[in-house]
Amino acid sequence: MPATLNASKTRTALRTSARISLEMLLVVLMIAVVLWILGQMWSVIWPLVIALLLTTLTWPVTRFLRRHGWHPTLAASVVTVLFLLIAAGTVVLIAVPVASQSGELATGVGNGIKQLRDWAAGPPLNIGDDQVSKALDTAAARIQSSVGSIVTATLTGVGTVVNGLVTTVLALFLMFFFLKDGPRFLPWLTRQLPGRLAKDVPALATHSWDTLGSFVRSQAFVGLLDAVFIGLGLWIVGVPLVLPLAVLTFVSAFIPIIGALFAGFVAVLIALVSNGPTDALIVLAIIVAVQQLEGNVFQPMVQSRGLGLHAGVILLAVTLGGSLAGIVGSLLAVPVAALIAVIWNYLREQLSDPSREPEPGGPDTGATVPAKKPA
């Protein structure tokens, strides 16, 4: 005879499922409200995030100076000025060689366009000059009909540049204050919080700081690998401006997806206008191979060791962040995932029951020695 469902157990299961579902909905609603508040405060949060990432990169030097007797203000000022000089030097290292060879590059671009037109005029495309002129006239007509949209987009781009400059300046000032007063923040925060929060919040802040430092160091290491391998490939092929392109590759590594595409596009373009299409295809193959090796091997391995995250989790986090918030989401996906893992592990430790030692002579239940409660 087949077993029948117990009415009492069924009602209990349904009530439990409904209660858990309601609690989950409340948690999701709370998360949505928090994200909405963060979105409203993004103009302040974004410079703060950049300042924290820059601080994790420059703090080891500041800590070294402070341990050797430097005043906090002097150490923070020297490190900030040194960082600005390095950033300016990087820009000069890229801009000066490009400017010195701008004439050759312009000639190469013109020759490349002429070669492209000659290739398009032959088989199998057989595109004549009249067709090219017609296409140019059509493009000009479309541009004239879209003047309003172009002006709007230009003004938006100018506003974006201005906002970027304001964000950069604000982030640099915040970085200076973090370097100068950072060690005093946790003691001050401990005095402001009541009860157990005075212990838990500083502990989480310390773990989060270590996690951010691991992220920045691992990203810098991956960018260095990209710069070395791509620069070596460009040098072997004989592409000019190898050093500026390698520096550009390293800097672009901190901007996922778009940074790699931009650096690769610049390298292929320079190879095309200086060495011809064959070398440009070779450079493209080198860049694709290095990017695939970096994205599927180096970055997941390095970040999974430094952040305590599985390589698959990192790949999924970057994909999800890019789909939700574009470039910014891709940039922040890995550190946010690592911070969530830190918070989850800490809460799990605090909420778990300590195991108990079996009584002498009693039955062995498989329990272990009581775990020491984390401080």
Characterise the protein shown here.
With 375 residues, this protein is mainly α. 83% of the residues lie in helices and 0% in strands. The protein contains twelve helices and no strands. It has helices at residues 7-40, 42-67, 72-100, 102-121, 129-145, 147-181, 185-192, 197-237, 242-252, 258-275, 277-307, 311-351. The protein is extended and about 80 Å long. The N and C termini lie far apart (57 Å).
Question: How do the strands and helices of this protein lay out in sequence?
Answer:
Layout: H1 7-40, H2 42-67, H3 72-100, H4 102-121, H5 129-145, H6 147-181, H7 185-192, H8 197-237, H9 242-252, H10 258-275, H11 277-307, H12 311-351
Helix pairs in contact: 2-3, 2-6, 2-8, 3-6, 3-9, 4-10, 7-8, 8-9, 8-11, 8-12, 9-10, 10-11, 11-12
Structure summarized in a few sentences:
With 375 residues, the chain is mainly alpha-helical. It has helices at residues 7-40, 42-67, 72-100, 102-121, 129-145, 147-181, 185-192, 197-237, 242-252, 258-275, 277-307, 311-351.
